[in-house]
Specification:
Elements lengths: L1 H9 L1 H34 L2 H36 L4 H28 L1 H8 L5 H27 L3 H56 L13 H30 L4 H38 L3 H36 L4 H31 L2 H21 L5 H26 L17 H11 L1
């Protein structure tokens, strides 16, 4: 035990990873409970068809808000982590640019969905009654997107404790308000309460972000923010394209299923299955949130040993978690189905495939951050494109099997992506120097630092 304690006390990376994992877990547990509690209540109060309505509308909200933020948020987390300690001025402009771009893109998407809500519901979803709910969630896209990017800046600063506290506050607000809204005003009340929760989260997160930047001596500013545009072309644009492929593809696949005669029921079953996946993957995804800034620092220093150690911690942690939740679901999975008033004899195959897929995803998640953290965004985009194409084509071919078909197609897509990530990491990491390579002290600005990275690569 003494050698282990000595190793932990001497390793900054292990301490950062451990404390970040603990705090992020506390926050995410509370935040992730809201959709699951909401789904349980809808299944008992309104039935599985209403779950389908909620799933399609909520999926549109999540896809739109992540589409508005994913590219910029990844850029902010990765580059603020890389520059916070060496170039505070650049880090402050990056934070300003991230908030500015997400505000603009979120507003544009919200206006578009509000204006074309009836057309989307009637012509695309073939469910005209969903047009009203799409208009209700349109303004929520803006505050949800802002909340995401503020959290991304805090993760880049490795302010895991602050991020956890914010998640816990917002999660508790939503756990109280969303069921209340559902009870008194049905799905409309639930969505309005969800929007108020995101708004409260943004109002609390903004000053927390400013304090986090201040502790690092970083001045948040919009002035000169667009001078960091090369970061957009190098990181945010490929990440945005990957988001366009990744986030809406779930919406596209559910649209394929919802057009079937019993489409709303099958989408409802799929959405419940995704709640199980969310429950199983909440810890592996927290591991990834902690890994991104740490890997970004390791790749920025071009330190092969550090990158391997960080990646090993992430993969080992996720594999351990995956083994645990597979065992738990094998023993207690029937109780989960009964919680949502499902028939275990009929629906068990869908959920067993989801459990297997979650184990695959848990292993793929840390490796999936290697292209992001190393700056090889276009490679990451290519892998995501293959995942999206496989998922959509598989769902189309298996659409007659409803929820079973879509979860099978998703699992196949993740297996192929996992192989691609393993191959890429196996090729890239051995090319790094064995020890840390210091940055050129004369590199004062973003362009010079980028040139050093490209030259060393």
């Amino acid at each position: 035990m003494r050698p282990l304690r000595k190793l932990i006390s001497q390793s900054a990376d292990i301490r950062t990873f451990g404390f970040g994992l603990i705090w992020s877990t506390l926050g995410t547990v509370v935040l992730r409970l809201t959709p699951m509690i909401t789904t349980i209540l809808i299944s008992h109060w309104f039935g599985i068809e209403s779950i389908g309505k909620f799933a399609v509308t909520y999926g549109t909200l999540v896809s739109a808000s992540l589409l508005a933020t994913s590219g910029v948020s990844l850029m902010a987390t990765r580059n603020i982590a890389a520059y916070a300690g060496t170039d505070p001025a650049t880090a402050g402009r990056l934070a300003g640019m991230a908030v500015l771009l997400v505000g603009a893109s979120g507003t544009a998407l919200a206006v578009a969905i509000y204006m074309f809500a009836d057309d989307i519901a009637t012509r695309v979803l073939k469910q005209p009654e969903l047009g009203f709910y799409l208009r209700v969630i349109a303004p929520i896209i803006v505050v949800s997107a802002l909340n995401n990017v503020l959290s991304a800046v805090l993760r880049g600063l490795q302010e895991f404790r602050t991020t956890a506290r914010l998640d816990m506050i917002m999660g508790l607000l939503m756990i109280i308000s969303v069921p209340t809204g559902l009870y008194f005003h049905g799905l409309t009340g639930g969505f309005v309460a969800l929007g108020l929760g995101y708004l409260a989260g943004s109002l609390i997160a903004a000053p927390a972000m400013m304090r986090g930047l201040g502790r690092r001596g970083i001045r948040f500013t919009f002035r000169g923010a667009l001078s960091q545009w090369p970061m957009i072309t190098r990181y945010a644009i490929p990440a945005l394209l990957a988001s366009i492929l990744y986030e809406p593809v779930n919406w596209v696949c559910t649209t394929i299923i919802v057009n079937k005669p019993d489409g709303l029921e099958q989408v409802g079953l799929y959405f419940i299955a995704m709640q199980l996946e969310t429950l199983l993957l909440f810890a592996p995804q927290i591991v990834v949130q902690v890994l991104i800034p740490m890997l970004s620092t390791g790749f920025g220093e071009r330190d092969r040993r550090r990158v391997r150690n960080i990646l090993a911690m992430g993969i080992g942690t996720n594999i351990t978690i995956a083994i645990g939740f597979v065992v738990v679901m094998m023993l207690f999975g029937n109780w989960f189905l009964l919680l949502f008033k499902l028939d275990p004899a009929r629906d068990w195959p869908v959920f067993m495939i989801v459990v297997f897929a979650a184990a695959v995803i848990a292993g793929a998640l840390p490796l999936g951050q290697v292209p992001v953290s190393s700056g090889h965004m276009w490679t990451g985009l290519t892998i995501t494109g293959g995942w999206a194409a496989t998922f959509i084509i598989g769902t189309w071919l298996l659409q007659d099997h409803g929820a079973l078909g879509i979860v099978a197609a998703r699992t196949i897509a993740w297996l192929i992506a996992l192989v691609a990530y393993v191959v890429f990491a196996a090729v890239l990491i051995p090319r790094l120097p064995q020890e840390k390579v210091p940055l050129d002290p004369d590199a004062k600005n973003t362009d010079n630092r980028s040139a050093i990275w490209e030259r060393n690569s």
